[in-house]
Every structure is written in C-alpha cells, then in structure tokens.
Design a protein that fits this description.
With 76 residues, the chain is mainly beta. 0% of the residues lie in helices and 33% in strands. Strands 4-3-2-1-5 form a five-stranded antiparallel sheet, with no helix packed on it.
C-alpha cells in the first residue's frame, strides 16, 4: 500500500484534503484527465477518491494517521 499526504493545493478539488493521508489507488495522467497533468488517484478513509498532481502530495509513512483534522497536535 502506497500512502501519501496532501501537502499543498494547486487546484480547487485538492483544497479540502490538505493535511489528510490517503492510499494511492491509481495513476492520474493524460489518458484520464483533460489537462494532461500527471499525478495520483488517492482514496481517503471515507471512500472519497480525488486526483492530485505530483507536486501536491508527498509520501506518508505507515505510522502517520489517515484521518485529517483529528490528528494530535505536536507538543513543544
């Protein structure tokens, strides 16, 4: 399983998912989108699937939480 964290949003569909971790379920490229951008089809815990460009995500380790918003805050 390849997991990614959404780290930035360059497109409207990405904005609600910044900070969330999901599982890559496929490739998103010129063969399946009008703009011809390359990226990943990512499925989130709630079943939502969204396409993200490669520069919107980074690899997520297995121990990072999947759900967004409910993660524990870092302590200083």
């Amino acid at each position: 399983m390849h997991r990614v964290r959404v780290v930035r949003s360059f497109y409207d569909q990405s904005e609600p998912f910044v900070g969330r971790v999901g599982e890559v379920i496929g490739h998103w490229g010129a063969d399946n989108n009008q703009e011809g951008r390359d990226g990943f089809m990512v499925q989130f815990e709630d079943g939502t699937v969204v396409g993200f460009s490669e520069n919107e995500v980074e690899d997520a380790s297995e121990d990072q939480p999947v759900a967004g918003g409910g993660e524990a805050a870092e302590t200083v």
